[in-house]
Amino acid sequence: MVKKIDVLICGSGSAGIFAGTWLARYGIPFTMLERRAGPMEIGQADGVQCRTVEIYESFGLSEELLREAYHILEVCFWGDDGNSGIARKSRAMDTENGLSHMPHVILNQARMNGLMLGKLDELCGGEKRIEYGWEIKKVEVDEALVGDPQSYCCQVVAEKDGKEETWLAKYVLGCDGAHSIVRKSLGYEMVGDTTDTVWGVMDIYPQTNFPDIRRKCTLHSSSGNILIIPREGGSLVRFYIQLPPGSRAKDVKLEDLQNTAKKIFAPYQMDFADTFWWSAYSIGQRIANNFHKDYRVFLTGDACHTHSPKAGQGMNVSLQDGYNLGWKLASVLRGLSPQSLLRTYVLERTKTAADLIAFDRVFSKKFSSKEERPGEFAEYFVKSGRYTAGFTAQYEDSELTDAKGSRQELAKGCLVGMRFPSAKVIRFCDCKAMQLQRVLQSNGRWRVVIFAGDVNNTDHKLRLEKLAQLLEPLAQTFTLAGGDIDDLIEPIVVLRSKFLETQQEQIPGYYWPVTGKWKIRDLHKVYIDDEHYNHGHGRAYEKYGVDRDVGAVVVVRPDQYVSKVTALDDFDGIEGFFKGCFVENRTLNGKL
Q: Which residues, by range, are in coiled-coil regions (predicted)?
């Protein structure tokens, strides 16, 4: 029997889970087919960049992640001591101050996926969406049906226990890893390195007198190079060891890795009380020659880009592929946005992947090569910190990004096309000091962040009232029938007023609307940039580069990226932008 489903996700890795979580958030039917017999138990990836922690925070999962993870606060650089041994050459802060309110941490990919699977299960109400033990055999697209948005034009054949079944889907996501059957079925190729580098990785319990075993370190010695990653729990440590050219992954033995490590650590003692897990694998820096088929089948993660593990980017970039695609696909299937929105996934993530490959090629070369001068690698490592933290991606203009039509000078710290940064503010309704980015939860809402100045100033208050007169009917135009006024477009007001001189009644009613099951006023949309009783002054206006007398409007996408920066009186610009993102006059019912 042929099964029909809106979205079929092939693979339950990081990208697939994030895409599925967005679909579940929007109530879109999907099925996820996974080759393994159950959820991932041990993952190769473990580096969790600051941006990824921010994303987990947006799903309400950061507290658990941070409690369990190892926090990387410092990096040590070791090199030859000139006497057949190694010595610490320098130390550096891992992440520059002010880059994020979240840290760089280490947590095994299996646990990272497990946290997100818990959220997915919660959003699905316990309904089973992942089917294990299925091997994808073939993916085809009926090009004659592609033009009909409602057609099930994708056919997927999969096998379990020797029995084949067929699914028909409107969309298929290839999240099935570096050896992707989805990619191969489409006839797409990986372009890049012609040879692979072989890496050994060990999770070990070290018995050693090496003093920095609980710090992230790079070791460069005449015997080879090692990257040390302390693991969560206080005892476990991961070693990444690049093996010599000509090595074959299948020939590598655990003793080979242990012996190589001992030589690199000399003159320090290095013994192994136990090895929790180890592997040897070959990998090259490659990118798929196409990320989609007719905008009905999309490739994500390792299915479309592969690279070395040195910079700790793999899991992060992969899950952010799914995070980027999931809400867009759900918005189209829900009838909120036109199908053309899906091209922005390819536009945005193809460039991100190409940038990753280019960065990894340089980073890998510097990691593996002998320094031309002392401290060269350490300098490059520190300089590239903004990239490795996940904060350099800048999306080009499209239906979702309008740098050309923006007035960037009004909010210099909110760069169009980049992730919306955080700053400390005070929530007015309850005097809670908090990070503004935390307000931007991944629940499908667009945000209009309004830097309105001082509401006690008559002119500032008047322009805030006029903006409400535009935004309220605009939000009603696109919100699903029966939904709350803030379901799709949510206003967030950031004032530069004196906290103790401000009253809730001064705020126009649109910014504290009646919503929800109980039809009570939502007071959690107004924030003040002022001195807090206990937490000092966040100086958010300074961080965002906003003049309180001029103000600014920052439009933020559901995935926390800045779409547009403009003036409070740019009514045509704001209205025109949203008309390009949404479909009007829908007859669907329900809420996000």
A: none
